[in-house]
Amino acid sequence: MLKVTAQAEKWPLAQRFTIARGSKDAADVVLCTVTDGTHIGRGECVPYARYGESLDSVIAQIQPLNDSLPVQNPRDVLQDELPAGAARFALDAALWDLEAKQSGTSIWNKLNIDTAAPLTTAYTISYDTADKMAANAAKQKDRPLLKIKLASKDDIARLQAVRDAVPDADMIVDANEGWSLADFEMLVPTLQDCNVIAVEQPLPAGQDKALKAGAYPFWLCADESVHARGSLPEIIGRYDMINIKLDKTGGLTEALALAQDARAAGLRLMVGCMVGTSLAMAPAMAIAAHADLVDLDGPLLLAKDRPGGMRFKGSLMAFPQPDFWGGAV
User: Fold this and answer.
1) Could you list the active site residues?
2) How many other C-beta atoms can be found within 10 angstroms of the C-beta atom of residue 231?
3) Of 193, 156, 189, nearest to 175 (Cα)?
4) 88, 82 contact by CB (below 8 A)
5) CA separation (Å) from 230 to 46, 191, 226, 262?
6) Rounded distance, CA 247 to CA 286, Å?
7) How far, CA to CA in Å, does 161 sit from each of 89, 116, 158, 177, 301?
8) What's the rounded mean pLDDT across residues 162-186?
9) How many whole angstroms separate alpha carbon 252 and alpha carbon 156?
10) Which residues contact 168 (CB under 8 A, 6 or more apart)?
11) Cα-flanking dihedrals φ and ψ of residue 82, to 5°?
């Protein structure tokens, strides 16, 4: 049986991060390790209170699996042992990493992913006053893709101020369930005028039946409304795109299957993240390699990243080094 550990870590942010449902000054993560006695695999997750998760609850889910996962096909067993969510993500990622080290074949080779070219990630401008958001966006004016966090019916001024500050950047807008249908409809003309390319989760999950895919001059992207494959049928016809976050799907194993099903249903793909270190971003690169939009800027928001983490050049994001995650070493 495999040995499993889980521990809480805190990673301070470079500056306060604010979205519709609150602010944070640090990324609180769970680091998970798995060993067969010779090789060690690592994974990381970010417990999310929106889904009833905490550091303690996630660690409590992981710890009972110490000495209960078999050496053969442990990821298959894990899918039945834990539900979709942060705990399963950390453990699933650690098992993928362990598998690469055991087999001598990198995850990227196994999945036929070309790692030669870096990918472009969005960079997030967190919610604040219009002036402060515009100033923060201006500091990132050389980045080709920005994600703008909005949260209220008064967002027209914020959006216009950011667009004036960065006239050339592509923009994703993320309301994090913060708007009503009336708010959204009022904002649509401004979203169009500002050439927004995608709007993420404009309405609360479960209150989005009025949305219609293809009805707007931008992609509608589901985030909180879709987790794993079981939630996919509910959003088809309402959204043009889904945001796959491995903390929601419960790991790369489910995320790959969700991506395949979403593509088959005609949906575009975004890959996103919680605010965590590079160890949480690395597995998501397997989805990012085939995604329409990539939003894996978590490490860029930290005061300091995990040692050996992802390499960035502006918004270009290289695949992880073999000894960091997923490589055969």
Assistant:
1) 149, 245
2) 18
3) 156
4) yes
5) 22, 31, 8, 11
6) 14
7) 37, 37, 5, 22, 22
8) 97
9) 37
10) 141
11) -130, 145
Q: Which amino acid is at 254?
A: E
Q: Give the orientation angle of helix 74-81 with respect to helix 252-264, to 10 degrees.
A: 80
Amino acid at 170: D
Q: Write down the domain spans for the chain.
A: 3-104, 119-317
Domain 119-317 matching CATH 3.20.20.120: the answer reads: yes
CATH number of this structure's domain 3-104: 3.30.390.10
pLDDT digit string, tens, across residues 147-162: 999 998 889 999 999 9
> What does the pLDDT look like over 104-159, one tens digit per residue?
999 999 999 999 999 999 999 999 999 999 999 999 999 999 999 999 888 999 99
For residue range 228-273, what is the model confidence (pLDDT) as tens digits?
Answer: 999 999 999 999 999 999 999 999 999 999 999 999 999 999 999 9
Identical fold for domains 3-104 and 119-317, yes or no, is no
Name 42's Cβ contacts closer than 8 Å, sequence gap at least 6: 31, 32, 33, 93, 94, 97, 279, 325
Cα–Cα distance for residue pair 17/4, rounded to 1 Å: 32
Q: Locate the DSSP E strands across the chain.
A: 3-19, 22-35, 40-45, 119-120, 123-125, 145-149, 170-174, 196-200, 219-222, 241-244, 268-271, 293-294, 312-313, 316-317
